[in-house]
């Protein structure tokens, strides 16, 4: 009678178990947590995860107001140098000299703010003079400027080519007869009227 081969689970080769299974089966692995602590315990000290706060003034628990008013706290004087005769003096809270008050501005500076401003750019025209000067004064001013320009200035040259001494002489004589022109910034009506009269002669 022929023999029938029997199959045994131990006869076939089996693969070795994974390494993790072998390590879990070993219960006698040495591990010293005292001499070799975990990395988290080394990098992060126990107090690093806590928030320490020490208030300068003790606070109450509910309304968070100072338990001791700040004015009743003990004064801690700053250390002074021993070489000075004032070093042994007790610090005091005596008020120092009063701060001097600001002196009022001079009359000229205060009056300069009330001057009639000079028109800018293309607004500096005869129309601006007629709008700011009364009719009678403007007519008298034009007549006097016409006479002074003919007498002192060079009627063949524009305003920018005139001699500065001659222009100052004309301005001084006009201000003597028309003192209200001091209210204008830089006495600009004189320049406007003199320039217009010189342009009229060049036509």
Please give a structural write-up.
With 203 residues, this protein is mostly helical. It has a domain of 77 residues. The protein is 35% helix and 0% strand. It has 7 helices and no strands. The longest helix is centred in the C-terminal third of the chain and has 18 residues. The radius of gyration is 51 Å and the shape is rod-shaped. About 3% of the residues have low confidence.
Measured as a percent range, the helix fraction is: 25-40%
Structural class category: mainly alpha
Task: Determine the strand fraction and express it as a percent band.
Answer: under 5%
Please give the number of β-strands: 0
Count of alpha and pi helical runs? 7
Biggest sheet, in brief?
Answer: none
Rounded to an integer in angstroms, the radius of gyration calculated over CA atoms is 51 Å
Shape: rod-shaped
Runs in which pLDDT lies below 50 for 5 or more consecutive residues are: 104-110
What pattern of helices and strands is seen along the backbone? HHHHHHH
Distance between the termini: 153 Å
Which whole number gives the mean pLDDT?
71
Region (Disordered): 60-106
Biased composition (Low complexity): 81-106
